[in-house]
Design goal:
This protein is an alpha/beta fold. The chain is built from 28 helices and 23 strands. Helix 16 crosses helix 28, helix 17 packs across helix 28 and helix 23 packs across helix 24. The longest helix has 17 residues. It is elongated, with a radius of gyration of 34 Å.
Length: about 700
């Protein structure tokens, strides 16, 4: 499993690149391959943090692979932006043993909105979070409060946080800050990086570009030097010489040109500091004599002129900060800063002890789409007269999730598709009134239902129903599964299967389950759509089928047989039926983890579960919830959906020997696409086009 670290922050300017560089090098010593990912960048064409990290010898990666989206893409369509991030990350995740994900820089929207977005990104990428807070200009108490706010925001999105680092802390406060951070939470690894002026220093070129100025004299190569600060020349030359500092930019009013020759001479003298650049402010004309003088000396020192006053220039330049890894000099300083102040071994150990185990609705959708694509199956959609079905078919084919068969008249379907601007060129369209197929299917149906007295003509009447026709296509192996119910009833969707297709070995009842995509995990709820008052034997079947559904979608089944009491605390016909069903599941499938009877709160809430059933492997951590009757199940799934923000996917039908799934009449295009993907995954249990075993009619 890929180790994923999300370096998150609550604001910009923390110096995440220093930490990212340190983590890349630490991980490279423990795994074979390390990748990097930047979910959100100011410009997708030139992100200096990304370019710096992929230039590292431990990161064999292209720039385009490491980029998610830009702020412009986020603003245009936030939902699609998140999907794009997840999709691009999933491609990357398959290539590397570890991935360092570097959060955004707060360059596009307000901080609270962007922090919430970062928290959701980390959750959707299922990455353990290393939270970074800035110490520059803050007291230790302010740093601590900032950390606590960030922790709450990321934990609210169900993230797992394994570490906390304060950066750019004044050196004199570093020890106090370390103690404060360590006291926030004992399970977190913490660290402090003291402020180092050089790492935050902008280059002379950044200053030059910020002022939109004109270079008068100087070497272009010198523009790459860092400027550690500014010195305002508001005094006589002897006093200015006393205040000159190494690698600082000097601001000289252009009407004080008498200072310039002395500064240039001092710069070239080993007895005085070597300055970064000179800016002549105020926009005054440079005298010819001064131009002549500077042209006769070795003036590699960059000197440029600006229209702004000295005060305005000082304000602009003082706000500039450079990338902390923009030069070899800074790279080496970053490495040393990380090594001297962060225990990398403890950091990686904490990462191992705090693995993220999230499955958000977006991540789950991405998973089932990828799973369906891994081995394409053919799904028949009988309700082609509904625009939602046509739109869904176009989306499925565009994403390569399944092969699609539409039932209906090809001229009518294609005309409607053109009007809706849907590309159905890859869909197969089958006319259910085609005599050859209709006769073949009717003969088969009459044969299978002969004991019921069904004649060939009666069979043809039945096959006029698209649900019967589509199910017969699955039976003959012309399709691997069917999805219906956007127009038809659940009974109409299921009935054909019950008439001539077997249930799975050992299963006597067809049931349903919803995949409940909670904000942080995916649960299976069954039966919420088919069986009104199941017997204990049927409840056992529903539990076993629901466990198999969970396995199909990568969910470890821990089955809770729900009732109004937990353990031995209650009695009565209803709870006794659940107790009997639980015993049957244990006998029929001893490999399954099951608990019952158990109340819903004890099954889903860890604190309640351990209180009511201490030591139970299901209490508080159930993944499969089996309801005692349809009334309870249907109401509960709808209540959970509305109160928790869960997304209910399904229902999916269970127990049939081939996948036939039902849609609610209010199904959206997204619902239909998800159900088709789920049906395709269920169909992967059997060879493509295998057809279905027959039921004794």
């Amino acid at each position: 499993m890929t180790k994923a670290v999300y370096i998150a922050s609550s604001e910009g300017g923390e110096g995440k690149s220093t930490i990212a560089l340190g983590l890349v090098e630490a991980l490279a010593r423990t795994v074979d391959s390390v990748g990097v990912f930047r979910p959100l960048v100011k410009s997708s064409e030139d992100d200096i943090v990304t370019r710096t990290l992929i230039a590292h010898e431990a990161v064999p990666q292209s720039y385009d692979d490491a980029i998610g989206i830009s702020y412009a893409e986020l603003a245009a369509d936030p939902d699609e932006a998140m999907n794009t991030i997840v999709n691009r990350y999933e491609v990357l995740r398959k290539k590397y043993d570890a991935i360092v994900i570097v959060g955004s820089d707060y360059a596009g929207v307000t901080a609270p909105i962007e922090m919430n977005f970062q928290a959701r990104v980390a959750a959707n990428l299922n990455a353990s979070v290393l939270l970074v807070v800035r110490g520059k200009g803050r007291t230790v108490d302010e740093v601590r409060r900032s950390a606590e706010v960030g922790l709450k925001e990321f934990e609210r999105a169900h993230n797992t946080i394994f570490g906390l680092i304060a950066t750019r802390v004044p050196p004199e406060l570093a020890d106090e800050a370390r103690i404060a951070l360590a006291g926030i939470r004992g399970d977190l690894v913490t660290g402090v990086l003291p402020e180092t002026n050089m790492l935050a220093a902008p280059t002379v070129e950044m200053q030059f570009n910020a002022m939109k100025s004109d270079l008068w004299v100087g070497s272009q190569r010198e523009l790459g030097k860092e400027s550690l600060g500014i010195v305002v020349a508001g005094m006589t030359l002897p006093n200015l010489l006393k205040r000159m500092k190494d690698d600082h930019t000097i601001l000289i009013p252009a009407d004080r040109m008498d200072l310039l020759p002395g500064v240039v001479m001092a710069h070239n003298s080993p007895a005085f500091p070597n300055v970064a650049a000179v800016v002549l402010t105020g926009g005054y004309e440079i005298p010819d004599t001064m131009r002549k003088l500077l042209s006769t000396v070795d003036a590699r020192l960059p000197i440029w002129t600006v229209e702004e006053t000295t005060y305005e220039t000082a304000q602009i330049l003082s706000r500039l900060e450079g990338s902390r890894t923009s030069s070899p000099r800074k790279m080496e300083m970053s490495r040393q800063l990380f090594t001297d102040n962060i225990n990398a071994a403890q950091m990686l150990d904490s990462l191992e002890r705090h693995p993220s185990n999230l499955r958000t609705p977006i991540a789950f959708e991405n998973q089932i789409m990828a799973q369906a694509r891994s081995s394409l199956r053919t799904i028949v959609l009988p309700e082609s007269g509904d625009d939602r079905i046509l739109e869904s078919a176009g989306t499925i084919l565009e994403r390569g999730v399944a092969n699609i068969v539409l039932l209906g008249d090809s001229l009518t379907i294609n005309k409607r598709a053109r009007r809706l601007k849907i590309d159905l060129s890859k869909a197969k369209i089958v006319d259910p009134t085609d005599d050859v197929l209709l006769n073949q299917f009717a003969q088969e149906y009459a044969k299978l239902r002969a004991k019921k007295g069904v004649t060939f003509e009666q069979a043809k009447e039945k096959l006029a129903d698209p649900s019967y026709f589509g199910t017969m296509m699955v039976h003959f192996g012309m399709a691997d599964g069917m999805v219906s119910g956007a127009v038809n009833t659940t009974a109409n969707t299921i009935r054909p299967s019950l008439e001539f297709i077997k249930t799975k070995p050992g299963i006597k009842v067809v049931s349903s389950s919803f995949l409940m995509c909670m904000p942080d995990r995916v649960l299976v709820f069954g039966d919420c759509a088919v069986n009104p008052n199941p017997t204990p034997e049927q409840l056992a079947d529903i539990a076993i089928s629901s466990a198999e559904t969970a396995k199909n979608f990568g969910i470890e089944p821990r089955i809770a047989m729900l009732s109004y009491s937990t353990g031995e605390s209650g009695s009565g016909p209803d709870v006794d039926a659940v107790r009997e069903a639980t015993a049957m599941v244990k006998e029929l499938r001893p490999d399954l983890v099951v608990e019952g009877p158990i109340q819903f709160d004890a099954a889903i809430d860890p604190a309640v579960g351990q209180k009511k059933m201490p030591g139970s492997p299901v209490a508080g951590q159930a993944t499969v919830f089996v309801f005692p009757d349809l009334n309870t199940g249907n109401n509960t799934y709808k209540a959970v959906q509305r109160t928790s923000g869960a997304v209910a996917v399904g229902p999916t039908l269970q127990g049939l020997n081939c996948p036939v799934n039902d849609l609610s009449r209010g199904a959206t295009v997204d619902d239909i696409v998800s159900t088709v993907a789920m049906t395709a995954i269920q169909a992967q249990e059997r060879p493509a086009g295998a057809g279905s075993p027959l039921r004794e009619a």
